[in-house]
Specification:
By secondary structure, the chain is an alpha/beta fold. The chain has six helices and five strands. The chain has a single domain, classed as Response regulator (Rossmann fold, 3-Layer(aba) Sandwich). Strands 2-1-3-4-5 form a five-stranded parallel sheet, with helices on both faces. Helix 3 packs parallel to helix 4.
């Protein structure tokens, strides 16, 4: 029942949004992908840095957001991928995912990026995406008071 009510509340929130997800843990990647798709977004899921760089180049100008695991195992980090993406599109929104400390994003991340610690709450993920992409008021946000 809770899952159904969350799907209804989030339906259409991310319509038209194209998100590249780079996550080397398959279950986490699939969970993030499903959450975004259930909210109306389009996704591209990759499991390593090389695939992320290839998708960024192939989809230049078509991606609106990156959701990046900080530690992708071998190769470069999510921080490196974000810096590369910002050279292609300075306005692309970025969310970092990690089990490490949030301070990493401040030390190594791109400006304006968000950091979500693992495990990830679906509601918090979608609220963060909505906030960073200007998708209106996040669900359950208080109504503005009349002036």
């Amino acid at each position: 029942m809770l899952r159904a009510s969350l799907d209804i509340e989030m339906a259409g929130l991310l319509d038209g949004l194209c998100v590249l997800i780079a996550e080397d843990e398959p279950l986490i990647g699939l969970s993030v992908e499903e959450s975004i798709r259930n909210a109306g977004g389009d996704t591209v899921l990759v499991q390593n840095d090389r695939a992320a760089y290839a998708e960024l180049e192939a989809r230049a100008g078509k991606l609106h957001m990156l959701i990046l695991d900080v530690n992708l195992g071998e190769g470069t980090t999510g921080f490196d991928i974000a810096r590369f993406a910002r050279r292609l599109d300075p306005d692309i929104a970025v969310v970092y995912l990690s089990g490490g400390p949030e301070e990493w994003a401040a030390w190594f991340g791109v400006e304006g990026a968000a950091f979500l610690g693992k495990p990830i709450s679906e509601m918090r993920l979608l609220e963060t995406i909505a906030r960073l992409t200007g998708r209106g008021a996040a669900p359950n946000a208080p109504m503005p008071r009349p002036a």
